[in-house]
Amino acid sequence: MKISTQEGYGLRILLTLAMNESSEDGLTINQISEMEKLSGSMVAKTLRILRLASFVKSVRGQIGGYSLAKPADEILLSKVLAELGGRLFDESDSENEVLDKLCTDSVDCSIRSLWRILQLAVDKVLTDLTLKDLIAPKDEFRQLVVERIYSSNHPMRKGCKDIMLKNLEVG
């Protein structure tokens, strides 16, 4: 499994903006490009996607630039990744509904169960993680993720367990 280039660049750009939140005018495409060692056209393309998704705002003009559209603690990583690249496994695909009706004991059915389990695990980790969490010291972020995965009080835990058991049932 890989994070797409667009997802990686988008997160890097958002992190750069979050770490420079104190800059009143925001950062220009050229500044972000230099800071992240990305081409100006790639930064511009990614910023457009982030702006249309309301993660960043822009100010035009000579002193203009890009900044976060809302505080870093209100930008959910799950929403950013979904906007930039989508989910690993999208249950809403109409193709899945057709395949589910035709599914008996094919290999494809087993693989789809794996994708569902992996998607649930990713969702579990990303639930409520924000851009601010990413800019926290590395040890704090790791601790947060470990607590998220192993927390018995986490709302996704029971759902993951139930769905995993359902996908593992012998039918």
What does this protein structure show overall?
A two-stranded antiparallel ribbon has the order 1-2. It has 171 residues and is mainly alpha-helical. It has helices spanning 5-19, 29-36, 40-52, 77-84, 94-102, 107-126, 131-135, 138-150, 155-168; strands at residues 56-59, 65-68.
Short synopsis of the structure:
This protein has helices spanning 5-19, 29-36, 40-52, 77-84, 94-102, 107-126, 131-135, 138-150, 155-168; strands at 56-59, 65-68. By secondary structure, it is mainly α.
Furnish the topology, listing elements before pairings:
Elements: H1 5-19, H2 29-36, H3 40-52, E1 56-59, E2 65-68, H4 77-84, H5 94-102, H6 107-126, H7 131-135, H8 138-150, H9 155-168
Helix pairs in contact: 1-3, 1-4, 2-3, 6-9
Defining traits:
61% helix, 9 helices, 171 residues, globular, single chain, 5% strand
Distance between the termini: 28 Å
Strand order of the largest sheet: 1-2
What is the H/E string?
HHHEEHHHHHH
- Beta-strand portion reads under 5%
Please tell me the overall pLDDT: 77
Biggest beta sheet attributes: 2 strands, antiparallel
Radius of gyration: 19 Å
